[in-house]
Design brief:
alpha/beta; Rossmann fold; six-stranded mixed beta sheet; four-stranded parallel beta sheet; disordered C terminus
Amino acid sequence: MQLRCSKPCSVETSRLREDRVCPECGAPLELVPERPTASAAELRALWSERRSSIEPADRSGVWRFRELLAGLTENVNDIVTLGEGNTPVLRGLATGRFAGVNDLYIKHLGWNPTGSFKDLGMTAAVTRAAVRGAKFVACASTGNTAASMAAYAVRAGLKARVFLPQSVASAKVAQAEAYGAELVRVGGNFDDALAGMLEGADESTYVLNSLNPFRVAGQKTFTVELMEQLGWKAPDVIALPGGNLGNVSAVGVALEDMLALGLIDRVPRVAVIQAEGANPFVRMWQSGASELTPLKDPKTIATAIRIGAPVSWRKAVRALKLTNGTTIDVPDDEIAEARTVIGRDGIGCELGSAAALAGIKRLRASGWIGEQERVICILTGHLLKEPGTTEPKPEPDMVRAKVESGC
């Protein structure tokens, strides 16, 4: 297993520390691909066979694909797992009609153990931390990373410290507290929390934000699982919300792996959807700039993607270029509307996830998505992450009128 700067720059590999950014240019690190030598047919058969196994590593929707996680651990007994992954692909009914897409499917990564896609990367990164002998782990978070890291850390016997901005959903804070993490409140937003965490992280602390390349390695497996569920036939479009951009980076890495291994014969177009008030990646992409300019004060009701300085933007650019993809932003009212429609499909999600469906509707209206194309909408966080934001409460007069009418 080798590391390199994702920029890249002239840094010597001996100076790289896997859980921090490049000391030369500040870019996140990435793993040099180490792909298996088995054929595509052999890998498909092996991964399918493991579905009937009762071994914890085989039951995990991440570790079932461990041939794509080379160098993470040599011993399956070291794996820290909560049975993550294995989330279904569901046909979009109300959501498909809403977006104007006849062939819409939803893969909900919020149906993971702690309620978000973060578990897919955390099982890999916490396993790596434990194998390296770490005692303390830390992250900055808008809530989902905190909950996930706290759960996997306590499972591994590690002490967890999470840095949270003031505006974090109470359900997410409650999760991190329930798993025994130490909570540090930071004035400002997520970017301030990340800066504070990195500044205070000493040599004994293993950092578990998405700048950690093992997080990306674990997260890429959901795309492999998706292709398996689709019979190894790539869809036309994969759309997902974009905050810190680690997830779209993981999609890009997974597609590169599968294309190189012959598991798929083409890549889908990837669309990253940001909130209108927290859209630094969209601004950079649409302007043609070569560098991302952070937003100092991102604003959106979708707290999970309220990030002004995404650390993985370079990797996200690579993913969009690989797939001939795009990125757009959507206003908060359209995010809220999309979340309501997702609920009418009996699925539900947090607001940040709903940005993906709102983006699909806009891309269909613009013609970027064709009516007959197969589109996969990726949801990333569970509805119960934000239980107080599902529907506006009725006014007292409305309640009284319903009672009087016998409703």
